[in-house]
Structure formats: structure tokens, C-alpha cells
């Protein structure tokens, strides 16, 4: 799965040089992040205009429409994570009201899909990582701060400054004992 600055999203197969599917054409907002869910049957695309779109992967048409597309953040959606069986999604981004990390339920109507919004990360959240064993979300922000959220209790557990500049990467070890951050500096 590839996403580009021009907004296009294409899926390829390892043994074929041609694309299998074009989920989005060029001319859309730049792609900020894309992932497959853990089952591999859905893919999601976050973009620079604050939208998250999700497609079924096993499409037979060459230009399928997303089964879900909504504006998660008013400025940009920078990252997202499929939670549980991919019916719950967490997003990070930048919104005018500082609700920069959000939980969404994809099984209800778009007007009721926001489960919880965390007010955090002045100037926006840049990256997001889900720790399934501990039911935690870890986010990094533009000012170098890390926030750790308990998604069961829907509260912020910890906030600390890890870097002097924007957090650009988060990685979690498989046993969830450690996480690593990378920054713009």
C-alpha cells in the first residue's frame, strides 16, 4: 500500500509491477499515514485535511469508494491506529479546539462516532501508538511532549517532555515493556 504527497493511494502485489487497486487518485489532500488492520481486510488513510478514510481491501473495482470517511480533526489527521477488531479507531492530529487525540467507533453513524476526545498537545499530536496488552495509547506532539492514555478509563495517565522539538516516530517493543521516541532534532 502506497500513499503520496499528491494524495494518491495505490495497492500493489509483490509479484506484479502494476497496481491492483487505486483507492484515491492524485489531487486529494496529502497522505499523512496509512495502515492495514491486523486482519488485513481493511486499510485506512489519514490525510492533511483532517480526514480518515477506510476501505475494504478485497475490492474488485479499480477505483473503490471508502465505506467510511469522516473529518476527525479540523486541521490535519497525522496518524491513527486500529484498536481491537478495527471497529474502534484512535486518531492523532491537530484541531482548533485542542482535541488532538480521539477515539472513534466505526460501527455507528458518523454524527455519533466520536467516543472520546482528549484535550492535549498544544499545536497538535504528530504520532500515535497503541499498546493492546495494556490498553494504552501513546502519543507524541509538535512540542516534544509524550502523553499516555488509558483507553478503558478514558483518561490521561502521564504527560512528559521527551524532546525539544516535534516527536516524529514512536515504536513499541512486542512485550510492551518499552517504547522509543524519535524527534525532528
Automatic annotation (TrEMBL):
Q: Write the record's keywords in alphabetical order, separated by commas.
A: WD repeat
Has keyword NAD?
no
Query: WD repeat ranges?
Result: 160-185
- Single biological process term from Gene Ontology: vacuolar acidification
Q: What are the record's GO terms for cellular component?
A: RAVE complex
Q: Which InterPro entries match?
A: DmX-like/RAVE_component (IPR052208), WD40/YVTN_repeat-like_dom_sf (IPR015943), WD40_repeat_dom_sf (IPR036322), WD40_rpt (IPR001680)
Highest taxon of the source?
Answer: Eukaryota
Q: What is this protein called?
A: DMXL2 protein
Amino acid at each position: 500500500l502506497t500513499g503520496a504527497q499528491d494524495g494518491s493511494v495505490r495497492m500493489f502485489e509483490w509479484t506484479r509491477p502494476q497496481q491492483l487497486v487505486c483507492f484515491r487518485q492524485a489531487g486529494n489532500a496529502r497522505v499523512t499515514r496509512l495502515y492495514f488492520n491486523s486482519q488485513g481486510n481493511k486499510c485506512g488513510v489519514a490525510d492533511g485535511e483532517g480526514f480518515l478514510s477506510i476501505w475494504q481491501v478485497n475490492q474488485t473495482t479499480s477505483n473503490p469508494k471508502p465505506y467510511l470517511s469522516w473529518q476527525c480533526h479540523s486541521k490535519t489527521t497525522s496518524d491513527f491506529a486500529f484498536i481491537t477488531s478495527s471497529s474502534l479507531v484512535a486518531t492523532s492530529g491537530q484541531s482548533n479546539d485542542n482535541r488532538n487525540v480521539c477515539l472513534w467507533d466505526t460501527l455507528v453513524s458518523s454524527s455519533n462516532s466520536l467516543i472520546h476526545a482528549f484535550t492535549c498537545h498544544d499545536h497538535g499530536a504528530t504520532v500515535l501508538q497503541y499498546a493492546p496488552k495494556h490498553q494504552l495509547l501513546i502519543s507524541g506532539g509538535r512540542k516534544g511532549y509524550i502523553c499516555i492514555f488509558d483507553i478503558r478509563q478514558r483518561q490521561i495517565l502521564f504527560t512528559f517532555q521527551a524532546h525539544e522539538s516535534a516527536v516524529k516516530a514512536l515504536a513499541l517493543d512486542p512485550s510492551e515493556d518499552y517504547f522509543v521516541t524519535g524527534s525532528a532534532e
